[in-house]
Amino acid sequence: MVVPSADPVAIARDLLRCRSVTPEEGGALAYLHDVLAKAGFAVHRMTFAEPGTAPIENLYARVGDQRPNLVFAGHTDVVPPGDEKAWRHPPFSGAVEDSMLYGRGAVDMKGGIACFVAAALDYLGANGGRPQRGSISLLITGDEESVAVNGTVKLLHWAAERGETLDHCILGEPSNIEVLGDTIKAGRRGSLNGMLIVHGRQGHVAYPDRADNPIRGLVALMAALQAPLDRGSEHFDPSNLEFTSVDVGNPTVNLIPGEARARFNIRYNDRHSQMSLKALIERRAQTAGAGRIRYSFEWPPSNADVFVTRPGPFTDLAIAAIAEVTGRRPKLSTSGGTSDARFIKDYCPVLEFGLVGQTMHAVDERVPTADLVALTAVYRRIIGKYFE
Ligand SMILES: [Zn+2]
Predict the structure, then answer these.
(1) How far away, in angstroms, is 71 Cα from ligand 1 center?
(2) Cα–ligand 1 centroid distance for 227 (angstroms)
(3) Rounded-to-integer distance, Cα 344 and Cα 73, Å
(4) Is 77 in the active site?
(5) Across 130-189, where does the E strand assignment appear?
(6) Mapping DSSP to helix (H, G, I), strand (E, B) and coil, where does residue 14 land?
């Protein structure tokens, strides 16, 4: 088997030229399908749909049929470019200037995908077209940047149904803060949205004794809810509750409103579960309300629970590979927003390591071609060590 060229810059350019703004496939998965099939992968493409959402294309590719199965995961969809004229180079042109590759998705995360594809091709080329033992798989979705319902969560389910076992996963999201090699994401805080509603009685502002102003109660409960939730844990920063909107919707100057609402989001660590957190918040409200404030909570469903991938042989292997290539010892971080790792963690241990995230979602998103080469070398070493 002749394995195709493993040049990460060329693969990244080809991917950046696909206009794959969620939910459009834009040719990105078709391109990967072609490259991976030529390299001997069994490639599966599937479209997932659900009422009220756009159908989305996904891809799963595997070479080898033994365990362990090392999985590289990612998404080819990108956020919109915004005003294209504000870009130094058109956002879907894959332009290179001064050893810098420009384009929407350069770091988040077509660049990362190009690097793990190139690393896998290079490994296969050096080993007669098959893993020495075990398997390499790619789990690629087109639905990460938007609602993420027809993507990784369904792809994982699909894979489990057909008996695929995933042993370890590297998710190629841009995990580094300043420089390639500074950070592995080994877990994420959970995210929980809530709505506090205080019920009062509407009336005339000149006769407050005949009314019950819910804004007074809302202010008291908000103060109680904003107290620290914990002091952090071994792997996490302190949890945080942030109010994001306070709503009364009252256009009338002489009217006491009947109801007031406040919306909030909690980013929480492994000292809590969603259940225990809701209980804690409701207990605090109960104490602050002291039987005088009438209130209720709404908790929209959340599929972003906290998780941590604890240090062990797999993290040691990744850290060693990164250190050997970059000369830096990455720290294991659990900061930042959620990612598809929240779904993958239910199937196997997952680490996030990719490019440097500084220009993600920004105008002139770009990546030094040297970073693409270095990240490919890191992934290549991870594969080599994993199958040693
Ligand atoms: Zn991303």
Answers:
(1) 17
(2) 32
(3) 9
(4) yes
(5) 135-141, 168-171, 183-185, 187-188
(6) helix
Torsion over CA: 120, 122, 126, 128 (sign): positive
How far, in Å, CA of 328 to CA of 315, rounded? 15
Quick one: how far is CA 81 from the chain centroid?
19
What's the predicted TM-score (pTM) here?
Answer: 0.88
Q: For residues 190 and 195, give the distance between their C-alpha atoms in angstroms, rounded to a whole number.
A: 17
Q: What is the pLDDT of residues 293-313, one digit of tens each?
A: 999 999 998 878 899 999 999
> Per residue in 71-104, pLDDT tens?
999 999 999 999 999 999 999 999 999 999 999 9
**Distance between terminal CA atoms of the chain?**
22
Token pair belonging to 199: 């019920």
Cis peptide before 109 (omega within 30 of 0): yes
The neighbouring-strand residues paired with 296 are 197
Please tell me the distance from the alpha carbon of residue 146 to that of residue 23, in angstroms, as a whole number. Answer: 8
Catalytic residue among 14, 25, 57, 77: 77
How many residues does this entry show for the chain?
A: 388
| Measured distance CA(256)–CA(8) in Å, rounded | 63
